[in-house]
Design brief:
Number of helices: 16
CATH architecture of the largest domain: 3-Layer(aba) Sandwich
CATH topology of the largest domain: Trna Endonuclease, Chain: A, domain 1
Order of helices and strands: EHEHEEEHEHHHHEHHEHHEHEEEHEHEHH
Strand order of the largest sheet: 2-3-4-5-1-6
Shape: elongated
Radius of gyration: 30 Å
Distance between the termini: 39 Å
Largest sheet: 6 strands, antiparallel
């Protein structure tokens, strides 16, 4: 399914006077000026002289689901054939008070740049914001209320950690780091101890990871040559510092059962030991999944807020795409009934009615049944999509979601659905009250 390139702008009125539809004190309305500008830039208006002709033109832009095409007062369509551009203008109460909503569908970005420049030069034009009226107002709302980043959010946006994220987005690499983490749970371990506990891993491969400061912290400790155990009481930043300390004092191993107590041996050496950094541990424990989802979202939209706080709720991600306001929950562990109720409550608090659950584990059939009940309940007015699997599967299913959302948006672009628009306005005023 091919995705059509889109660019959407909302023009907000400059004053309280509405001059969109008629002449005001002998001056041309803003809508008339926009129409004239479109014609000058080679765009031709589509009229209702032939429904079949219009449908044929619209199919070129992937708009196919048209049962009965009718262009009402607040919708106008312009088209350019030489440089394929479709321009749809929507005005009136259905879009937003005192706004004009313009949608460009195009194949090459250069085809619309000239038109956009001309539109911005129109006299007395209001504030121009990227996105539709609904997207522009919701973006402003999210920007104001989702400023606080969680600890995970700071990690995701830290460019210095890009190498760790790239490494841990691979399933096999995460398994290796998990094994090393469990080995080092009781304290830093030497390279030999780590290698002996990991299967199918060479000393060379291990050395490349261990000596990466973004993954591991390297310190030096004293090892008794009699019992071959490491003393945890002293840490050294370098081997020379440890050897200097050994030469300046008389070493005595205090470990239980050490043969040196009987032989009175003083043999010891300085060895390097390793432990995972705090950042690597956090990313391995689930932040990698939030980063993966955010990377996929940024391929299709710039309106994404990863790992933010809304009041006391921590959100894994929230984004805007084709007039859908979507809350995302990422789970690298099992997803249960309590998790479902929590994410639904977060969505209600945000007045968001789309949820995506991304998990690497299978969801229990009881939870899936409950999700189905939520989706079928008209009073709830909520849509929950489950995406499960590993990295490649998650990417593929997210791509399908975006393709379907894009197709649905295009098919609904010329339809006049009173109930849908009325609900959107009610939701907007509800968010304003919040």
């Amino acid at each position: 399914m091919k995705t059509i390139n889109q660019f959407r702008i909302a023009i907000f009125h400059k004053s309280s006077k509405r001059t969109y539809y008629a002449y005001n004190e002998g001056q041309k309305s803003l809508l008339t000026r926009i129409r004239e500008t479109c014609v000058k830039q080679g765009l031709t208006p589509l009229f209702l002289n032939s429904d079949e002709r219009i449908k044929k033109e619209l199919k070129k832009f992937n708009i196919t689901k048209i049962k009965k095409l009718f262009l009402i007062d607040n919708t106008e369509v312009f088209i350019s054939k030489k440089k394929p551009v479709l321009m749809i203008i929507k005005t009136g109460r259905g879009v937003g008070l005192d706004t004009i909503h313009i949608v460009f569908l195009y194949k090459k970005e250069a085809n619309i740049k000239r038109i956009l420049v001309s539109l911005r030069k129109i006299k007395k034009i209001g504030k121009v914001k990227e996105g539709t009226y609904a997207e522009a107002t919701q973006r402003e709302d999210f920007n104001n209320n989702l400023k606080t980043k969680s600890a995970n959010g700071k990690l995701i946006e830290d460019k210095k950690l890009k190498e760790i994220f790239t490494y841990l987005l691979n399933k096999d690499n995460r398994k290796i780091i998990s094994e090393i983490s469990s080995i080092c749970k009781l304290g830093p371990k030497s390279k030999e101890e780590i290698l002996s506990s990991i299967k199918n891993f060479t000393l060379k491969d291990l050395g490349e990871i261990l000596h990466n400061k973004k993954f591991f912290i390297k310190i030096y400790r004293i090892k008794c040559c009699e019992c071959n155990r490491i003393l945890f009481s002293m840490n050294f930043s370098s081997r020379k510092q440890g050897e200097r300390a050994l030469s300046n004092s008389s070493f005595r191993c205090l470990m239980r059962g050490c043969p040196s107590k009987k032989s009175k041996s003083r043999k010891a050496e300085i060895i390097e030991v390793f432990s995972l950094t705090k950042e690597a541990l956090m990313i391995r424990s689930g932040v990698w999944l939030e980063k993966l989802v955010d990377d996929e979202l940024r391929r299709v939209t710039s309106d994404t807020w990863p790992c933010r706080f809304h009041n006391n709720d921590e959100l894994d991600n929230i984004f805007i795409f084709r007039e859908k306001f979507v809350l995302v929950e990422c789970k690298d562990t099992s997803f249960g009934q309590n998790d479902l109720y929590n994410i639904v409550m977060k969505a209600r608090n945000l007045a968001v009615n789309h949820i995506i659950i991304v998990t690497t584990k299978k969801i229990h059939k009881n939870v899936l049944t409950r999700i189905k009940i939520f989706n079928e309940d008209e009073e709830e007015n909520i849509n929950i999509v489950v995406i499960s699997g590993m990295e490649s599967e998650i990417r593929r299913k997210l791509e399908i979601f975006f393709q379907r959302a894009n197709k649905q948006y295009l098919d609904n672009l010329l339809e006049f659905d009173t109930d849908r628009r009325l609900f959107r306005r009610r939701a907007f005023h509800h968010r304003k009250r919040l």
